[in-house]
Amino acid sequence: MQLKKDKRRATLCWGDGRKQDVNFFLRQFAENHSGKELIIDVLNSKAAFIPLEDTNTGDILFVNKARMMSIELYERDLSDETMPDSKVVVHVELINGETLRGCFLIEMPQERSRVSDYLNFSPAFIYLCSGTRDIIINKAFVFSVRDIEPIPEH
Question: Where does the source fall among the domains of life (predicted)?
Fold first, then answer.
């Protein structure tokens, strides 16, 4: 029996500079946390190729996720339980020269709560919260990250 999957739209930015509007297929229940499956769950799964729907043609493609540089989200796609220990504002430079500004939600033990720890111990794809559109970044395409300033807690 085939389980019903939800579609979530995003724009893929490929390593060669092309952009493509796609739908991700997400399960109603995630494997590694409570609640629904998220795009970042699919990206950080063990699968090398994932199915996506090209929103322009309706074609189902099996794409190599290692070739994705970043994924621009149309809406925030975080778990309801995401309670970060800290938010850190960063400036990210990708290998193509593109720069991104946003914040990492760092959910690490206190002794490993630096940006360098987050980058070194997190999975291949990381989530950058931004004021306009959140972006999921493939760390393989990151040239550098600069910690700008901590956001004060309220």
Answer: Bacteria
Q: Which of 2, 70, 82, 3 is nearest to 38 (CA)?
A: 82
Domain count, the chain: 2
Write out the two tokens for 72.
């621009």
CATH (domain of 113)? 2.30.30.100
| CATH number of the structural domain spanning residue 17 | 2.30.30
Residue 110 sits in the same domain as residue 64: no
> In this structure, how many other beta carbons lie within 10 angstroms of the beta carbon of residue 132?
7
Do 61 and 110 fall into the same domain? no
Residue 70 and residue 8 in contact, taking contact as beta carbons nearer than 8 Å? no
The model's pLDDT over 55-71, given as tens digits with 9 standing for 90+, comes to 999 999 999 999 999 99
Q: What is the pTM of this model?
A: 0.88
Rounded Cα distance between 26 and 42, Å, is 8
- Give the domain range for residue 113: 86-148
